[in-house]
């Protein structure tokens, strides 16, 4: 009990000092302590309340007088307060009446101030929006004026600087949504412009290339003229007339040329003048600004590769005219001039590696195309113009930094084609010259005509010079013409060698090789064909041999001619020699062989006219008419051979006599001839005697002794054997070196004897009744048997 009292006091203190909202836990502790504890707490609480009441009563009693005094004072003030209230009310009323106007003005001021604040806010916002709208308007204006690069820059400024400041407005959102569309539109427009540009340069590439090639050619001409002018200035002796240095004719011409070049250069347009490159610049800048430069580069290169393939594709009939080649080269040059221009004025759109790769691809295609189409060219003038175009083409592109060595290597291949076309052309010229020639010595009536011929052909003959006019030169008209055409061929071949950047030694070697081809193949073939032609007779063949002799002698002058052109001495180790000597020797040999053949053919024609009566009993007493005509022909023919070299005439004469002897022998031994009488043999002997007389008359000088008569020795011994009927001597001496009938073959004698044996049987039916005839018949049979044994012995020995 004693313990609970301090606890109740503590609880009461907490209740007094604690916030009324928190009294619950304190009161709960009263009921939680002990049973019936709340009764004690209540008692304690009543005690506490009575104590507080006593204290309040004491305090009221202490302040009661003061309270009474205050109430009294308050009552006094109440009357005054009423008066004051009435005054205040009246004053308030009057003040309210007076303040109504002020309130109205104040409200108006407030409203104006609000408007002013709103206007200020609007102005501030408009100041932020106006630059955006101005920039967007500027963007639209730039789009309309097709200033797309500037438009993209404006877009960048809008996005980065202006739109972020006013992004909360709807119109800004619309702008933001429109900007990508505008970019795509600019892309499409720029690509369209680029396509138009690509189409434009495709159409103008030939004009661009033509202009570039013309500039390169004029520059080369200018440099060449300037170099030659300098050489003339240094090379000639300087002398002064009337105080001035005279100008050479060449210098005046060079100055005129240079002045003309200057005039032309003013008119020539560059690639930049012919084509507007702004679309490609613009497109490049646009894609660069859009951060898509690589895509543009790939697209541009892809399209240009396609155009390159189209440009490199030639027309099927390009080889027919030089204009076809010129257009082809101009397009290619124009293409690469544009690429070179793009390379130097843009950053990264075209690189040197890319252009080199494109050029190597194009160069391979160009070389293949030129190889194919040049092979179709049959006109040397067209091939020469093609070569000049290739040189200008190569020089032009070399000036732009493209390697062109392979083109000059190709020119060496085309040079062979050019030489082939030249050879074909000159083959026609040679044939025309040979066809037009009369194959007779050139007549000259006076000194003037003689000098004209000498000016065309290097002919020297002291003996002929001593003769008076009129006189004849030994060669025919074709010789100086052939010589002139060979020189023209050398000039034509030299034209191709110009501007090939080759040394004089190489040019000299090329000229000599091509001239050798002309001599050894073309001229040789023409001579061989000429010699084989049926209408070329013996007189013409003789003249051809004389002509080839003089042409052979002129070869050294052709070598000097080439030396003067190239300034390369013939003594140089690597200098080739002309093979004209062998060419003309071969032609001469062929002509000589043809002479022998035609002589033999003519002899055969005369022999075909022979009409022997092989059964005649007695000879006519004179030689056959056909043989006398043949001998007269041979005699007149060999007189024409006086201008031939001695050995040729002698060989021809010996060949003719041998062929005549062989033909006469074959006539006797012809298998179709069955019977021969002794009278026919005697008549045949008369013809052989005429042949021997012709041989002994020395129709061609130079034979020693009876050399020519030996051609008929076989016939002579055979006829002597039958005429003398000296069979005993023949059979006894057969096989002996000293035999009188050494050249008589047993088979030949047997064949002829059998023909005579058959004739004897036919003509002497009653020979058996005459003793002499019977003895002769027996002798013939005996000789036949012996000859057969000799022939059989020879065959067994063989």
Automatic annotation (TrEMBL):
It comes from the Eukaryota. This is Exocyst complex component. The lineage of its organism: Eukaryota, Metazoa, Chordata, Craniata, Vertebrata. Belongs to the SEC15 family. Component of the exocyst complex involved in the docking of exocytic vesicles with fusion sites on the plasma membrane. Signal peptide: none annotated. GO terms for biological process: Golgi to plasma membrane transport; intracellular protein transport; vesicle tethering involved in exocytosis. GO terms for cellular component: exocyst; plasma membrane. Residues 44-213 form the Exocyst complex component EXOC6/Sec15 N-terminal domain. InterPro entries: EXOC6/Sec15, EXOC6/Sec15_C, EXOC6/Sec15_C_dom1, EXOC6_Sec15_N, EXOC6PINT-1/Sec15/Tip20_C_dom2. PANTHER family: EXOCYST COMPLEX COMPONENT 6 (PTHR12702:SF2), SEC15 (PTHR12702). Keywords: Exocytosis, Transport. It comes from Pelusios castaneus. Residues 407-755 form the Exocyst complex subunit EXOC6/Sec15 C-terminal domain. The keyword Transferase does not apply. Pfam families: EXOC6_Sec15_N, Sec15_C.
